[in-house]
Amino acid sequence: MTAWPARIVSGEVTLRPLARSDRAAWREIRRRNAAWLAPWDATVPPGGSPRATSFGVLVRRLQRMARQGTTFPFAIEVEGRFVGQLTVSNIVRGSAQFASMGYWLDQAYAGRGIMPRAVAMAIDHCFARAGLHRIEICIRPENTNSLRVVEKLGLHEVGLAPRFLHIDGAWRDHRIFAVTVEECPRGMLARLDG
Predict the structure, then answer these.
(1) I need a labelling partner for 166 at 20 to 30 A (CA). Which of 10, 16, 38, 102 fits?
(2) For residue 144, how many other CB atoms are within 10 A of its CB?
């Protein structure tokens, strides 16, 4: 099995490549969850390059980056229904073998253990199939939902990044959590289910 494209299933959760066919579900969920997601969504700082103007442009850009090996753009499904997105990005090879991870979920599915499972699945894929050594997740200190995800998975906090990302219209601090392959030799899903 190659690292990408990938389809990963664990229980009711499936990770698969984000596709143009997700457009209607993606747009409906983003519209319905706009107020819930806005405090955590990346924004373009003044003078920055504009973001994708349509879902099709976003998917094409992410697919191009996936072909280049720098990104794994996953759709999250629960029992066949699109419910969110998880993106492994900034994949660095060479001596680093490192990547970052970000995600969002339909509020209607929050609190059911879906995101910790999806993140564990993606981490296991990154370590076992993509050959990465370290995964990092950066979270705003106020984002209690995401903080619960890394807590459930036992990721260690490794630092604070002041004014790290432009989120919701301003430069925001982020807490940095990370895990290495040595920290979960049996896999992250085994740790979660253990």
Answers:
(1) 16
(2) 10
Other CB atoms within 10 A of residue 1 CB? 8
Domain assignment present for residue 4? The answer is no
Q: Counting beta carbons within 10 angstroms of the beta carbon of residue 21, is it exposed (0 to 12), middle (13 to 18) or buried (19 or more)?
A: exposed
Q: How far is residue 55's CA from residue 20's CA, in Å, rounded to a whole number?
A: 7
pTM: 0.96
User: Which tokens go with 132?
Assistant: 């990465």
Tally of domains in the chain: 1
pLDDT tens-place string over residues 159-184? 999 999 999 889 999 999 999 999 99
Domain CATH code at residue 176: 3.40.630.30
d(CA 41, CA 33): 11
